[in-house]
């Protein structure tokens, strides 16, 4: 079985790469393919170097392992050494935690208007609150949590501190748990790859506030298979029949005589598998052969890449730059033709913008309408991503901007 490898955006072999993140450093991410999901650096950039790690890198790794012992795969938020009492780690720097940020924050009127116009740059976005604001949710937003992007926002608004927050122990990251944490007061705003549900609106109303979803990007779901699979395309109905168990051998769709092994995350945990079940499977249950569910996208990719007959799905930005799995072209029907979600190792953004790819969705920032600072922080974040510069950032992250 191929080994996973970690990338933090900084080449360890002393070389420069044309496709690397201009600001380099990002949170360490466990990869399975030949290139990093976050910054596209090749594996050899991380494991090919012989330079000795810096003391700070070792300290960060040790503290991270202590914090996340026993957890493997997935998108990880690594923590460095603890700060003195009364301080908190923000962007690798210990800063004093203000006992009460409210007196220094910008006043807010109840029901801050949702984004109705756009701004040219991040710096021109008004009504940005001061303070530390926690956010989390959908793993599809992982590229937008890159520290380089968070730092870009911080440079535009120095006192607007964003802190990504993992779900409580025993919970897997995803849209659903992010929205729950928002309702429970653990987050200031959340990120979701699927629309809000009626029961979520009701739970918020029962607590005397409302939820609002603001679309900030477009995304497509890519179907991928073990590279030994000979077929190159599937229809949406064939995908449904595979994941519900009606089709269980590749020869039924023009491939070789080989059992199909469908891989999925739990639809109760993430927005992507939940959206897949609702839209592609049309609310039908996954086949028993799908379980046990993969913990996260990294685990699903790993399993498909090493399982003959394996098939899975994930957001396009997490699939297209992988080399140990093969993305498939998808069609609404054979007669209407097939559309490729990837153009080489890049996301084929044109097909998502033109809505010719069959499995396309919008991504949302979920705002807590409570007339308080959490509301203002969510509106500010949505406005930042919807600014002209923010949409460029969305594009650079591998997602598809709304405009």
Automatic annotation (TrEMBL):
Q: Where is this region: Disordered?
A: 1-26
Domain of life where this protein originates: Bacteria
Q: Report the InterPro entries cross-referenced here.
A: PBP_domain, Phosphate_ABC_transporter
Ranges of biased composition (kind: Basic and acidic residues): 1-15
* UniProt KW keywords: Signal
Task: Tell me where in this chain the PBP domain is found.
Answer: 133-389
Among CDD domains, the record links this protein to: PBP2_phosphate_like_1 (cd13653)
User: Sorted alphabetically, which Pfam families does this protein's record hold?
Assistant: PBP_like_2
Tagged with keyword Phosphoprotein: no
Q: What is this protein called?
A: Phosphate ABC transporter substrate-binding protein
